[in-house]
Amino acid sequence: MHPLPTHPRLRAVDLAPLPGAAEARGRAWLLTDPSGYLEAPLELSGAALLLLALCDGTRDHAAICAEFTARSRQALSVAELAEFLASMDAQLLLDSPRFDAHRARLLVEWRTQEWRAAAHAGGAYDADPGALAAALDGWLAGPPPVAPPAGRLRALVAPHIDFHRGGAGYGRAYARLLDFEPPEVVVLLGTGHGAEEGRFIVADKGFETPLGRLAIDRPLLARLEQSLPRDHRRGELAHRQEHSLEFQAVWLAHLAQRAGAPPPSIVPILATSFDDLLEPGGGPLHEAETRDFLCALRGAVAAEPRRLLVVVGADLAHVGPRFGDPRPLDAAQLQQVRARDDAALDAFATASPQRFLDAVASHRNQDRICSVAGLYAALFAVEARAGERLVYDQASEPGGALAVTFGGAALYGEEAGPGLRRRDARRSG
């Protein structure tokens, strides 16, 4: 038996109003866990939501009962609260000894695994290799991008939204790789949506996909980590369920099959948030740990003799009441979001890390662009001289409850140095 905390505290979770039939029964809420410890979303009544909101670590059981009664005008005994808390603890929603033990077991299991399982196969995308390949080919068959700029392709930005909303956008981004020789090694930069600690979090696992495995690139990983004064595997369980890199692995495995090439080896890195670094006089290079990581990554990329590509799985704005905005979205608001996204993408395409950061900092990231750190890291690491935009779109729900925006871009460097040469350049050389 695990004892209940004397001052219970809810873990970091996401809450959103539950529309439709549940709302007709009274205000209902959907609780989801970005860290992936909760196996399925949980529907909550308004009373349960209030109780969990009171579990902030500052109140003991008696104080929670008193505050709940004062706010709801419903009596709640300490025994009834204990029963509720025991149920929530069994769901691993409380920061508690039970949860700590569960996370410790998962970490032991994770560290014994050579491969990261395809966590979202059969859910976010088809687990059948044939059906999955056909879907990806369909998205690749969209309008081809214009001819790429001169120079080696050093970085590619693709969405990390789910395939059914962003498949065409992925196709427009990954179609750019069809113009270039296949990569031998890929640095994968994604967003750590459920990360519990760390600015950049490195994993030492290859990725399984229905279309084949992408092995970890141990030489590049070792070169990166040997340059780091701190441990950047802290919080590595965030990789276990994170989709932002898994979706890129699926595309890379598929493109390798199409090219008749071995799948690239990978170095998977999750980035969290730069929002606290956007204040005037701040920035990523003013924080020692972040600066050390970015410089180590740039050095590891520059020293790589093989065909290396940096791939960023990056979505942009997250707006609407589901993300905390006060009013449903309308066309005018979405146009304003697009203008701010355009400014960020245009700045990214200049290949300047500072211009990109300035574009986001100009509005303090008010639209919750979730991939600022990963995009900045790619710009800093590859030292490109030019960029291009490949795609932009907005996925919104009817009624204006939410919109997630996403884009695609590429960065290019000199013919000397890291990156991929154009296929025609390889043939002529």
Count the E strands: 14
CATH topology of the largest domain: Protocatechuate 4,5-dioxygenase, Chain B
CATH class categorisation of the largest domain: Alpha Beta
- The gross shape turns out to be globular
Q: Give the full name of the CATH homologous superfamily of the largest domain.
A: LigB-like
Radius of gyration: 23 Å
Please state the average pLDDT score: 93
Main pleated sheet? 8 strands, mixed
Beta-strand share of residues = 15-25%
Low confidence ranges: 21-25
> What is the element string, with H for helices and E for strands?
EHEEHHHHEHEHEEEEHHEHEEHHHEEH
What can you tell me about this protein's structure?
The chain has helices at 21-24, 46-54, 61-72, 78-90, 97-112, 129-140, 163-174, 218-226, 243-259, 288-302, 331-349, 353-361, 372-382, 423-428; strands at residues 14-17, 28-32, 42-45, 115-116, 152-158, 185-191, 200-202, 206-209, 212-214, 265-271, 308-313, 315-319, 386-396, 403-413. The protein folds into 2 domains: 14-106, no CATH class; 116-428, LigB-like (Protocatechuate 4,5-dioxygenase, Chain B, 3-Layer(aba) Sandwich), CATH 3.40.830.10. It is built from 14 helices and 14 strands. It is 38% helix and 18% strand. Strand 13 and strand 14 (403-413) form a beta hairpin. It starts with 13 loop residues before the first strand and ends with a helix. The chain is α/β, with parallel strands linked by helices and 429 residues long. The model is unreliable at 21-25 (pLDDT under 50). The strands form 3 sheets. Strands 5, 6, 7, 10, 11, 12, 13 and 14 form an 8-stranded mixed beta sheet that branches. Strands 1-2-3 form a 3-stranded antiparallel beta sheet.
